[in-house]
Design brief:
two-stranded antiparallel ribbon; 12 helices; TIM Barrel; 8-stranded parallel beta sheet; alpha/beta; about 290 residues
């Protein structure tokens, strides 16, 4: 049985090219100009989509957490930081227009119900559920009421918790993302064999959301059957921000997309055959014993 989900005009899943998502997240550091540069870099690399994060700060974080001292370029409290990283309507309208000029899909992971309602203004092709939100049944149901494809990340989640989330969401138009929620992730904790295991258990397309340093393991995820590869993108890994160090710079993203599609072409269909190009070599080199 083929497992496919349509995102925009693109089919994602069995037999389809890998769908590569550049996770901009909050790496724009509140700057629309930086967001545009990251979108352009993702388009140049050949990604199919970029993803942002959207929160209603006062809902997602407690008063105590927001009041906690935290030094940043935006101020001295966690509230200063979180508010500075949130883009508003005008910025997202500009992002929507800019993505269209690059023929780039874009969507967001929404951390609360009001953020989902906010994003609906832009007619997103799908929604992403962050690993931290996998156990929030109300948020899952709120997403589903808009009947859009769902991408559910499974970091820091047990199989029992994933079972429940899949029960809440249903399997229609659902993609699961294998993920380890550390930044950066240790290679020995990536457990990439979880990709085919999730696919077999749930019967839905399965992708990979990577937070490791380096590219080889994300390429291996594609070889193991990940139909979506998502990596954080940054203009410079040395920039300020909690996600920058676990992100990929533009030139690295170019290499990753190139290599994913090269490997897709090399995997073939698994049917052993003799190629026409091998026949002259057979004539020249093969010995037949009697």
């Amino acid at each position: 049985m083929e497992r496919k989900v349509r995102i925009g005009k693109t089919w994602v899943g069995d037999g389809e090219p890998c769908f590569v998502v550049a996770e901009i997240g909050i790496n724009h550091n509140g700057s629309l100009d930086s967001a545009r540069k990251l979108i352009a870099a993702a388009a140049l690399a050949g990604c199919q989509a970029v993803k942002f994060q959207k929160r209603t700060v006062e809902v997602v974080y407690s008063k105590e957490e927001l009041a906690r001292p935290r030094e940043s370029q935006f101020g001295n409290t966690n509230r200063d930081l979180k508010l500075a990283l949130e883009l508003g309507y005008d910025a997202y309208r500009a992002i929507d227009e800019y993505c269209k000029t690059h023929q780039m899909l874009w969507f967001a992971s929404c951390w609360d119900e009001a953020s989902v309602d906010f994003m609906e203004q832009f007619d997103p092709p799908c929604y992403k559920i962050a690993s931290a939100s996998l156990t929030d049944d109300n948020l899952l149901r709120h997403h589903r009421q808009y009947r859009r494809p769902m991408i559910l990340s499974t970091g820091m989640s047990s199989l029992a918790q994933i079972d429940h989330a899949v029960e809440v969401l249903g399997t229609d138009d659902l993609i699961l993302m294998h993920c380890t929620s550390t930044y950066p992730s240790k290679l020995e904790e990536l457990n990439l064999r979880g990709i085919p295991a999730l696919k077999e258990r749930y019967g839905v397309p399965v992708g990979y959301s990577g937070h490791e340093i380096g590219l080889a393991t994300s390429l291996a995820a594609a070889v193991l059957g990940a139909c979506v590869i998502e990596r954080h993108i940054t203009l410079d890994r040395a920039l300020w921000g909690s996600d920058q160090a676990a992100s990929v710079e533009p030139q690295g993203l170019v290499r990753l997309v190139r290599d994913i599609h090269a490997v897709e072409g090399a995997l073939g269909d698994g049917v052993k055959r003799v190629y026409d190009s091998e026949i002259p070599i057979i004539d020249k080199l093969r010995r037949v014993g009697r």
